[in-house]
Here is the input.
Amino acid sequence: MIKLVLLTLFGILPFSLFAQLERSLANPNQPVELIFHAPRHINLLTVEPLSEKSMHFAIMHTFGTLDGGVQNLFGLDNGANIQFSFEFALNEKFSLAASRSSRDKVYNVFGRYHIFQQTQNGSKPFSLSLAGGAGVNTSNYNFLPESAPNFRERSSYFGQVMLARKFSQKISFQLTPMMAYFTDPRPIYQIEGTEQLYIALGFSGKLKITERSSLSLQYIPNLNTNLRNNFGIGWDAEAGGHVFQMYFVTSQALNEQYLLAGGNGTIGDEFRLGFNVNRIFATRQKRK
Amino acid sequence: MKQLTLFFFFITNISIAQTFLTESGNVNFLSTAPLNEFNGISDKLNGLIDLSKNVLDFYVDLNTVDTGIGLRDKHMRDNYLNTDKYPFAEFTGKFNAIPVLTGSSKIPVTAIGKFKIHGVERQIEVKGTLSKNSKGEILLDAGFDVLLSDYKIPVPKLVFYELAEKQTVAIVATLKPKKQ
Here is the structure.
């Protein structure tokens, strides 16, 4: 009987619906894209993936504290911490990166892996990515009366999980449980913390104001130290292949380990002006 | 009862024997701006031509349009076409006059109908050619222009790669006879 009904339906279907093809998506699990404007959001890495064989280049700066006033041009006179960061996507899921920040002359290498992406049909309600890496402090400590730290003692590590969701066209949010580990956190290093292990929970928010710009927020409470928590607020602007990020933040640190161990100023007076330029280079011009 | 069903089944299918379908037509959106020329290509054009009932129905999933640069594709989907809300570009219409396809000669045809993209529907006229190959398939070649402002797709004044207000759309497809 069921067969008969089906046969009848299929027989009559062309009669009633012949005029239009049924619209169906080529990929029903189409990912939600541009949860954030770039693979960086103020200081934190995001779940935003790179296309295969494309490269993300970020130049990041943070200046001195605002409390010097106009005499120090709101911290710009105090010299910047600058980080250059290159990230290359081996495929749609995995990218490798190297960065160098001037504070303690730290070289970092890290990877970012996207476990899955939020989908438009809701089959995946959020995006989940991992990042982790290792760094080495290459400052010259020969002036010290005691022996300079060796390579192992200069090393530090970080790992983090990124969980993000685009709640609407306007609002995106990311939760980033993160940790950093210093093999030998010496007082001479430009960090405030004295512990080896740092655990924190990063919050990143994006509120889209125009089609190509957003208000950005960052809050990173420390979970196992008494250091002040990191707070940042800024403005992201997209222009073609560039994303410009201007922000006020409580720390001068730009890499993950120093963000957690570096300490923070108070919100307001000890805000520092920060500025990132993100550029995506497409090396693969050939189509799929 | 069974005979009646079978009767309906055959009757309806005989009546659409003049139906041709494709799921892999080629669409090319060409943007020629003063500073930059690029094109977006999809080979996932779905189409139906019914020569007996004079029906044309085509659609393409805009998520499949590839401009060759991943970030540009994302911006196209997210900032311009809003494919999460409006995933398809669609055309539904009919021929001004039903063409008679004989041999392999290209017959010029004109179709009128509704084109819909970005949630905006407009009446358009499309010119092209049809021909039939030895396998009984229909070869379609057609083109038309789309003014982005007609479909409420804003073009920013300052973008790194310039985007043309007028997009030239070209369609090439081979439609197979619908299986009985």
User: Anything to note?
Assistant: The two ends of chain A are 47 Å apart (CA to CA). Residues 2-17 of chain A form the longest helix (16 residues). The CA atoms of residues 104 and 163 of chain A lie 30 Å apart.
